Amino acid sequence: MPDATRRSEQSRRAILDAALTLLAETDYAKMTIEAIAARAGVGKQTIYRWWRRKGEVILEALTGQATPVVLPDSGDLEADLREVVRATVAEFGDPRLSATTRALTVEMLSDDDLAGQVRDRLLRPQLDAVRDRLAVAREQGQIRTDADLGLVVELIFGPIFHRWLLSNGPLTPAYADGLVDHVLAAVRP
Amino acid sequence: MPDATRRSEQSRRAILDAALTLLAETDYAKMTIEAIAARAGVGKQTIYRWWRRKGEVILEALTGQATPVVLPDSGDLEADLREVVRATVAEFGDPRLSATTRALTVEMLSDDDLAGQVRDRLLRPQLDAVRDRLAVAREQGQIRTDADLGLVVELIFGPIFHRWLLSNGPLTPAYADGLVDHVLAAVRP
Amino acid sequence: MPDATRRSEQSRRAILDAALTLLAETDYAKMTIEAIAARAGVGKQTIYRWWRRKGEVILEALTGQATPVVLPDSGDLEADLREVVRATVAEFGDPRLSATTRALTVEMLSDDDLAGQVRDRLLRPQLDAVRDRLAVAREQGQIRTDADLGLVVELIFGPIFHRWLLSNGPLTPAYADGLVDHVLAAVRP
Amino acid sequence: MPDATRRSEQSRRAILDAALTLLAETDYAKMTIEAIAARAGVGKQTIYRWWRRKGEVILEALTGQATPVVLPDSGDLEADLREVVRATVAEFGDPRLSATTRALTVEMLSDDDLAGQVRDRLLRPQLDAVRDRLAVAREQGQIRTDADLGLVVELIFGPIFHRWLLSNGPLTPAYADGLVDHVLAAVRP
DNA sequence: ATGTAATCGAGACGGTACGTCACGTCTTGTT
DNA sequence: AACAAGACGTGACGTACCGTCTCGATTACAT
C-alpha cells in the first residue's frame, strides 16, 4: 500500500542508525520501537509503515552494514577454514558484536518468517561461501566425495552457536582451531 | 526474604502446571505472568515471591518433569548415538515439544544467569551422558585418544540446534543418521 | 507535556460521565480509576494523562454539571436565605446527592491543592452569591454595618456541614429555618 | 469471639502508639494497617482481632490520650467562650494536630458507624461542655430563652470546621474572637 | 503442675488496584 | 502521500495493601 517512491531515505537511514546505536548502547529490553522512533527523531508510524516487526528493522540495519563475505582460497583448506572459524568465534566472543546476534535470535524465535529472512539474507552468504570453498576442496580430492557439505557447514557453525548460547566454554582461537581439526577429520578421504 | 518453610506446595505445583499447560496450549507471547497466575488460581505476588523472572518458572517446570537421562550402552557406539540423536532431532522437529525450547531459549538470551541454570540443570545431564558414553568408547579404542569429548558433544548437538533455529533443513531420522556418521568419522582412530 | 489541542473530547466526556455514574450508583470505595476507565471504555493512561488524581476527575465532572448559582432577591432577606439554606440542607440530607460531597471531601482531605480548587471553582460561586445578597441587605440597612459577611456565610454553611458529617441531628426544613433565624439574629442591626 | 481476658495489653499499647506516631510522622496515605503492625512489632492479625477498621484504631488511640474537657465558668460567658474557641481554632490551625483530624474525618466519611463513635466518644464531651455552659448562661438571663443551644454549639464549631476544610481563611485568635462576637449577638436576649 | 486453648509474631496467600510502559492504530497538521 | 508528533484503547508489568489463613512459640487459665 505505501508508495515507496515517496519514501524518505533520510528517515530510513535515521531509523536504521538509531536501531544499531540502541543495540550497541543499551540493553536489548530497552530497544523498543518507541525508543528507536524517539532516537531517530521519527514518528512511530514511519517505522510501522515500512517494517512489520522490530526484527525486520534490525535485520535491515545489519544487512546494510554487513561486509560482503569473501572466503580466502589459498589452496590450503585447513588454513582457510581456520581463518573464517577464528573470525566467527571471535565475533561470538565479543560482547558488543554478539549483542546483535542476541537480538536477532530472539526475534527469529518469535517469527518464523523473519527466521527465514535472516537465514537467507544474512547468514546464507556466509554459509554458502564456506560450502563453496568445501566444494572446491572436494573437487581437489581433499574431502571425501560422500561428505554432505551442507551438514559439514552445520558441523562448523552449529557448535559455535551452541557454545555461545549456553556459555558452555571459552570462545577462543584455540577452540576455533580444535573445531576445525575435528571437522576436517570428519571429511578427509 | 520469603520464608520457604511456610511455602505452599499446592500453589507451587499449580503455578508450574499452569506454566506447562500454557506453553503447550498457547502462543509463547500469551504466556504472561498474569496468565500463569490466573490459570493457576494464584495471586501474582505468589509468583514474584518465589521466582524473579518468567524464565525461572519455566525452567523449574521443565526440570520438574524431566525424565532422568539414561543413555544406552549396547556396546555399539554408533547404534547408541543414533538412538539419542534421532530422539533429539525428533524432539526439535516436533512443534509441540520445541515450543518449550523456543520459550527457554528466548529467556536465556535475556538473562545470562538463567542461561547458566538451564545449561547446568536441564542440559548438562544430557550432554554429560553422551560425553560419558564417548569416554567409555574411547577407553575401548573406538575413538581416537586425542578427541576433545566436550567438543564432540557440541559437534552432535550444535548442528541440530543450528538447523532448528534457522529452519535450515529437515529434522528427520535420516538427518540424524547423517550427523552421527560424520561425527563418528571425525573421531574414529 | 500532553498536547491539549489533540485531546479527544469524546473520551473526556465519557470519563466524566462514567465518574458521575459510578458516584451515583456504587460505593465510593468501588469508584477506582480502573472502574472509571472500564466504564468509560477508555484506557487508564488517558485518565492519567489529563488528571493527576481521582479527585480532579470528580471535581471536573461536578463543575461541568453545576447549575449556575442564582440567589433570589425578593427584597425579603429572610425569605431569600430560607430558600437557599433549605435547598442546601435538603441536598446534604439526600443520600444520593451527598455521595458526591462525601467523595469530594475525602479527596480534599488528601490533597490541599484539590481543596483549593474545589473551594474556588465549585463552592465559591455559591458562597459569594450568598455574600452578595448579604451585602445588598447591609446597604439597605437590614444588617448591622460591622457584620463580617465572610464569617456570616460560614455561620450559615458551617453548621450544615458539621451536622451532616457528624450525623449530629436531622437535616430538615425546620432545621434550616432555625439556622436562618439564629444567623439573622446575629446580624440584625 | 476473641477472649478479652487474654488480651495482651502490651500489644494494644504498641499498636495505639504506633498509630499515633505514624499519624504525626508520615503522610496519612502511608498509614496502613501493615505499617502500624510493622511499626508496633505486632502481627497484622492482632490488629484485625481487636479492631474492625483502621479508623477504630485511630479513634481509640486518640480517645486514650484525650484530656478531659473542662470548660471554664468565670461568670463571664464571652470570656469563657473566647477561651475555648481560641483553643479550638488554634488546634485546627496547627498542622501537626490537625493531621489527626484529617485522618479521622476521612475514616468517618467511609463508615457511618465510626462517625457515630467519633461523635459520641470524642466530640460529644467537648460539645456538651459548651452546651452546658450556655445552659447556665441562659438560666442567668444572658441568653434568650428561645435559643436552640444545640444549634448554637454548631454555630460555633461548624464555621471553624468549614474554614479549616476549605482553607477558606486564616485560623487566628482574631477569627475566633469575631466568631464568638457574632454567635453571642445571635443569642443575646 | 500440667495440659490445653487462646493470643501472639510472622508472614504466605488470593485478590484488587495502583501507576507505568510499550504495543500497534489513529488522527492532526506540515512538508 | 509521506512525514513528525503524539493521543488513543489495550494489556502486561511489578508493587503495595487488603483481609484471611496457617504456622510454631509463648502465655495463662482450668483442671
TrEMBL record, chains A, B, C, D:
<feature type="DNA-binding region" description="H-T-H motif">
    <location>
        <begin position="32"/>
        <end position="51"/>
    </location>
</feature>
<keyword id="KW-0804">Transcription</keyword>
<dbReference type="InterPro" id="IPR001647">
    <property type="entry name" value="HTH_TetR"/>
</dbReference>
<dbReference type="InterPro" id="IPR011075">
    <property type="entry name" value="TetR_C"/>
</dbReference>
<protein>
    <submittedName>
        <fullName>TetR/AcrR family transcriptional regulator</fullName>
    </submittedName>
</protein>
<keyword id="KW-0238">DNA-binding</keyword>
<dbReference type="InterPro" id="IPR036271">
    <property type="entry name" value="Tet_transcr_reg_TetR-rel_C_sf"/>
</dbReference>
<dbReference type="InterPro" id="IPR009057">
    <property type="entry name" value="Homeodomain-like_sf"/>
</dbReference>
<dbReference type="Pfam" id="PF16859">
    <property type="entry name" value="TetR_C_11"/>
</dbReference>
<dbReference type="InterPro" id="IPR050109">
    <property type="entry name" value="HTH-type_TetR-like_transc_reg"/>
</dbReference>
<feature type="domain" description="HTH tetR-type">
    <location>
        <begin position="9"/>
        <end position="69"/>
    </location>
</feature>
<keyword id="KW-0805">Transcription regulation</keyword>
<dbReference type="Pfam" id="PF00440">
    <property type="entry name" value="TetR_N"/>
</dbReference>
